[in-house]
Design brief:
Elements: H1 20-25, E1 34-35, H2 45-49, H3 60-77, E2 84-90, H4 93-104, E3 112-116, H5 119-130, E4 135-139, H6 148-157, E5 163-167, E6 169-170, E7 175-176, H7 179-189, E8 194-198, E9 217-221, E10 232-238, H8 239-243, H9 256-266, H10 275-291, H11 293-314, E11 330-334, H12 343-352, E12 355-356, E13 358-359, E14 367-371, H13 378-395
Parallel strand pairs: 1-12, 3-4, 3-5, 5-8, 8-9
Antiparallel strand pairs: 2-10, 6-7, 9-10, 11-14, 13-14
Helix pairs in contact: 3-10, 6-7, 10-11, 11-13, 12-13
């Protein structure tokens, strides 16, 4: 039986062609806000435009896109395809983090050492807890780097750990941890242990030598320093270590070995892939190369950080971290000590001006965070500073702040 048709219905939109009525009634897209956050991040117009295609998951063009992404990410990581592989996985960055943990911690005798100095390190421990994995947490101060000598002492006392995990850039505060130095002591005392680095918000802009750091698995997300759109994450893996984990995963969809084997067999995902996000990421990788790769991207982010740091200092805002920290991904600032200050009000007023910052995520200080990454430039940081001045004036908070 043919489907009935409502004669009063509007004509369907087909292949991007709209009826005059639909065009007139269609909403106008609002201007993008500037996202000074650790994610999601703003991306270039050309990266967004790259998504305006529909490709099937088995389409040759899409299979070639996935192949290009996997190969190019190994080049960005500075590791050869002869010893390493890239395994993309659907979902946010945390999906890749959990995939590595569930895939690599042995079912028998597995024990992970988790190095924690912030919320994202704690998330690693929470995943272990939820999965029922034997693990030990080493806690460090939120405003301090993981201390290599303390890690070495623990590993020397107990070399039975099968896995060690650390966050490269602890985005809750902005601390950059010494992951290469930690990796060397891991291999010194636990040479067979799997060393896992969560480089979610640093990969692509903060140099990291995976070989020198003896990193076995590293994860990041499409919508971080490479400036793609959200939708998938990826693991850079030592291929031999990955294959040695076959049959270990406690999850079907998060099994990195089976994901890898499927991609190697026919270039396809086992389950529905984020086609549009991967098309955007392909463009984002080209733009990373045009900017000068990791070094060029880092240079822009460092300049963003310098403009923000100088401007906020002139306004009297105090940073959470001291001068011993060299990170330039995100900056945390103490709340102003003024009775008129309310973060909710401060955030809302900035948001109304199209400037989106982030609340703090440390437990021992009232802070807010300003990201320097994504499709942001020094002039964007300067505009944010002007908006902060205007908002403080509207809130009745005189600047510069009184540091006493």
């Amino acid at each position: 039986m043919p489907l009935s048709r409502d004669v009063n219905a509007q004509p369907a939109i087909q292949n991007g062609s709209h009826s005059p009525v639909a065009e007139k009634a269609g909403p106008t897209l609002p201007a993008d806000k500037k996202l000074f956050t650790p994610g999601p991040l703003g991306v270039s117009l050309t990266t967004k435009q790259a998504m305006l295609r529909d490709l099937g998951s088995r389409d040759v063009q899409f299979v070639n896109t996935v192949r290009f992404i996997r190969q190019r990410l190994l080049e960005v990581a500075g590791v050869p395809a002869s010893s390493h592989t890239c395994v993309p996985i659907q979902g946010s960055g945390t999906f890749a983090v959990e995939a590595v943990i569930t895939t690599t911690v042995p079912r028998q005798g597995g024990k992970m050492l988790v190095l924690v100095n912030g919320a994202y390190g704690q998330r690693l421990a929470t995943i272990c807890q939820v999965q029922g994995l034997d693990h030990r947490v080493m806690n460090f101060e939120e405003t301090q780097k993981v201390r290599v000598e303390d890690v070495e002492r623990v590993l020397a006392e107990d070399p039975s750990f099968t896995n060690v995990a650390i966050v490269h850039c602890e985005t809750s505060s902005g601390v950059i941890n010494p992951v290469e130095e930690v990796g060397r002591v891991v291999k010194k005392h636990c040479p067979e242990a799997c060393y896992f680095v969560d480089a979610m918000s640093s990969f692509g802009a903060v140099p990291l030598d995976l070989t020198a750091g003896s990193v076995d698995f590293m994860v990041s997300s499409a919508n971080k320093c490479i400036e793609g759109v959200p939708g998938f994450a990826y693991a850079i893996c030592r291929t031999d270590r990955l294959l040695s984990c076959r049959g270990v995963a406690r999850s079907l969809s998060l099994d990195l070995v089976e994901q890898y084997l499927g991609l190697e067999k026919n270039g396809q995902f086992r389950f529905t892939p984020p086609t549009h996000a991967m098309l955007a990421f392909c463009q984002a990788l080209r733009e990373l190369e045009q900017e000068g790769g990791v070094e060029g991207r880092a240079k822009r982010y460092q300049e963003n950080r310098r403009v923000l740091q100088d401007g906020m200092s002139a306004l009297g805002f105090q940073e959470l971290l001291d001068e011993t920290h060299e990170g330039y991904i995100i900056t945390s600032y103490h709340f102003p000590d003024h009775p008129a200050f309310s973060f909710k009000d401060f955030y809302s007023r900035l948001n109304e001006k199209g400037q989106v910052i982030y609340p703090g995520k440390v437990t021992k200080a009232d802070c807010f965070r300003v990201g320097n990454i994504g499709h942001l430039f020094p002039e964007d940081m300067q505009h944010l500073l002007r908006c902060i001045q205007d908002v403080c004036a509207d809130m009745g908070i005189p600047l510069p702040l009184n540091s006493s």
